[in-house]
Write a structure and sequence with these properties.
GO molecular function, one term: magnesium ion binding
Binding site for 3-methyl-2-oxobutanoate: 43-44, 81, 110
Largest sheet: 8 strands, parallel, barrel
CATH topology of the largest domain: TIM Barrel
Bound molecules: 3-methyl-2-oxobutanoic acid, sodium ion
Keywords: Cytoplasm, Magnesium, Metal-binding, Methyltransferase, Pantothenate biosynthesis, Transferase
CATH architecture of the largest domain: Alpha-Beta Barrel
Cofactor: Mg(2+)
Strand order of the largest sheet: 1-2-3-4-5-6-7-8
Shape: globular
Strand content: 5-15%
Catalytic activity: (6R)-5,10-methylene-5,6,7,8-tetrahydrofolate + 3-methyl-2-oxobutanoate + H2O = 2-dehydropantoate + (6S)-5,6,7,8-tetrahydrofolate
Length: 262
């Protein structure tokens, strides 16, 4: 993915899009050398990298700091999340946040929801900054939603989701993340939109899939929501490497002559 046009082309050619989150330089280099299509500096970094309880604690300064580290490690298409409330204080303030985020080297921004900030989305797009939408489970609204749960389960809320998706397309978004929605709802949205949908917990039919890097690498062996697959027993592998180092230090195996200067 070099530009937003490659997202549209992927959908036209029925070629699935892979996206992973990334928050730092060293994992950006690993992703850069992989086949992954594009990278998201998600506000989930507040939880994954900083240990906060929710994404509400991410700030534009945090997002920009992590995004610039990521952009130094990869030339892939990088999208950066606008953090909590940064696009809810009017157009002028939102554009200031967008400016800071784009100076990190990202090629697009992502923001959650649509109602009440349609004008902001349109203004960002008209300012030349690609916007990725995000509907369904929107973690910045966690206290309004009342917990991490599947959205669009009844007919009424499914209809609202479809309307939101169509509005985002009309406002000029180049792609939309669908988070934790029933497969048939994601399927209908995907079929009705020209722009690609990228799912997380949204079933098989979305045009792409996104996962948090640490989740897919199994860095937390306890975190096993239904939508997730661990592609590596990351925690086990890292723990055993650390314990091996510890043992070798204590048993005077490391360093040996090989790792010592003469
Ligand atoms: O912040 C994030 O990691 C995200 C993805 C889950 C889509 O927004
Ligand atoms: Na996010």
């Amino acid at each position: 993915m070099d530009s937003i046009y490659d997202f549209g082309k992927a959908k036209q050619k029925n070629r699935k899009i892979s996206m992973v989150t990334c928050y730092d330089f060293w994992s950006a280099k690993i992703i850069d050398a992989s086949q992954i299509d594009c990278v998201l500096v998600g506000d989930s970094l507040a939880m994954v990298m900083h240990g906060f309880e929710s994404t509400l604690h991410a700030t534009t300064e945090m997002m920009a700091l992590h995004a610039s580290a990521v952009c130094r490690g990869t030339s892939k298409f990088v999208v950066v999340d606008m953090p909590f409330l940064s696009y809810r204080k009017g157009v002028a303030q939102a554009i200031d946040h967008v400016q800071t985020l784009m100076h990190s080297g990202a090629k697009a921004i992502k923001l959650e929801g649509v109602t009440g900030h349609e004008d902001v989305i349109q203004h960002i797009v008209h300012s030349g900054v690609p916007v990725m939408g995000h509907i369904g489970l929107t973690p910045q609204s966690i206290h309004q939603i009342g917990g991490f749960r599947v959205q669009g389960k009844n007919e009424e809320s499914a209809k609202i989701l479809l309307q939101e998706a169509q509005t985002l397309e009309e406002l000029g978004c180049f792609a939309i993340v669908l988070e934790c929605v029933p497969s048939h709802v994601a399927d209908e949205i995907t079929k009705k939109l020209q722009i690609p949908t990228i799912g997380i917990g949204a079933g098989i039919e979305t045009d792409g899939q996104v996962l948090v890097l640490q989740d897919l690498l199994g860095m937390d062996d306890q975190f096993r929501p239904k939508f997730l697959k661990h592609y590596l027993a990351g925690k086990t592998h890292l723990s055993s490497a650390l314990n091996q180092f510890d043992t070798e230090v204590k048993e005077r195996i490391f360093p040996s002559k090989k790792e010592s200067y003469s």
